[in-house]
Amino acid sequence: MSLISVVLTLVALAAGAAIGWFLRKQTAVKLASGVEAKAEKILKEAKVKEQELLLEAREKAIGLIDKAKQDEEVGRKELRGEKQRLETREATFDKKLLELEDKQSRLQEKLGQVEHVKKEMDALREESVKKLEAVAGLSKAQALEQLMKRTEEESQEALTSRIRKLDQVNVEEFERKARTIVATAIQRVATSHAADINTTVVQLPSDEMKGRIIGKEGRNIKTLERLTGIDVIIDETPNALTISGFSNIRRQVAKRALEKLIADGRIHPARIEETVELARTELAIDIRKAGEDMLYEFGITGIDPKMISVLGRLKYRTSYGQNVLVHSMEVGWVAAVIAEELGADVAVCKKGGLFHDIGKAIDQDIKGAHPQLGYDLMKKFNFPEEVAYMSIAHHEDNPKTLEGIIVKVADAISGSRPGARRESAEDYVKRLEELEKVATSFSGVDHAYAIQAGRELRIFVRPQEIDDLNAYELAKNIAKRIEAELQYPGEVKVNVIRETRVVEYAR
């Protein structure tokens, strides 16, 4: 190849490279211009969108502020109204309190006047008796004895006949009414009293459920009794069964378990075990809540959670038929009111009154008297000595502190108010035995029986020692002795029976 050809070839290559570079540059410039324009367009659209969002957010914020101002104004109006109502109630209360204090002062004045008049009447009565004794030359007791003796001697036969006649008047009607009254009293008092202490009734959807609760060869009922420690009594009472046991907590566990089993329908030993455990858990929660509610009502804080549960156990504890938790609440409030009036420590009286019977929550599980058990329990949970002492003070004859005396008085008020307590089975039997013992202590009495739950004392006398007139005297003397020495609900009918029986056999 010649030199000229080589030169031309190089020139051509250089010219082609220059043309290619120029064309590529032009294309790149056009492409960059398009992308820049597109980016600028997107940026403008974003700015417009941003302005729209800002305006929308500003409008929403203004709306929320306006609504908040309206709600605030409504709340202020309600608060002003509530404040006005409270001020009105406070003024009414102050007015009634002043009226009550005024009435109390007037009653005190009248009471003083009555006492003064009573003293004057007593003095006049004593003076009249002395004048009569001076005129008659006999004392009151001597005159009464002579009068009774003379009347008895002169009118023995007439008195006996008259008494017999009076006894026959409407005797059948009186007996019928007496039976009705006694039966009604037993239904209202005796049955509910026993049910409150020893039994709980569970309602059943049908009598068919009794067989399912008993189970094959009694396996279900035996499992339930073994797990809960109670007796399940299934009798002919329609659609019901009875749970019997001395522990209210055990009866509650059994009752809850039975109700769950009846609702579920699956009754077999394994299911019974699960249900009893669940019932125990639920009852523990209920006991804890009862203690918390009581402490909240009294405004007492800082009590150990275990002690709260012990307090809640009193919800299922009774004493002489009275619920111990309700009794403790009454003692706490009464003690607080008395302490406030006497200037004693209100906090100690309120707290000590609420916890004074705490030993009864554990006395069925731990051996010992409930006052000492309660004192030891409160000391264990770091109660102050003056509060723990209330457990012992309410059973002492002479409490050492003023607060102890107040709690003792409050305990007596709560326990002795009408309808608060009923007798336990031991006291019931003891009362009947005392009635019979009083009757048999009189000469001429053969034997005596206390019947109708202690409302009637039936006495059999020896006819050769007691005649008809002496039988009436004996009945009166026994009645007076019972009134003087024994305590009993209602009244006791003293029925003296004198009869002669002659038996002979024809052979």
Summarize the structure.
This protein is mainly alpha-helical. The protein has helices at residues 3-136, 140-154, 156-168, 171-198, 208-214, 219-228, 248-264, 269-298, 305-313, 324-342, 346-355, 370-380, 385-388, 390-393, 402-416, 425-440, 468-485; strands at residues 199-203, 231-233, 240-244, 318-319, 322-323, 445-451, 456-461, 493-497. It folds into four domains: 38-138; 193-288, Ribosomal Protein S8, Chain: A, domain 1; 301-416, Hypothetical protein af1432, CATH 1.10.3210; 425-497, K homology (KH) domain (GMP Synthetase, Chain A, domain 3).
Could you outline the blueprint of secondary structure elements for this entry?
Blueprint: H1 3-136, H2 140-154, H3 156-168, H4 171-198, E1 199-203, H5 208-214, H6 219-228, E2 231-233, E3 240-244, H7 248-264, H8 269-298, H9 305-313, E4 318-319, E5 322-323, H10 324-342, H11 346-355, H12 370-380, H13 385-388, H14 390-393, H15 402-416, H16 425-440, E6 445-451, E7 456-461, H17 468-485, E8 493-497
Parallel strand pairs: 7-8
Antiparallel strand pairs: 1-3, 2-3, 4-5, 6-7
Helix pairs in contact: 6-8, 7-8, 8-9, 10-11, 10-15, 11-15
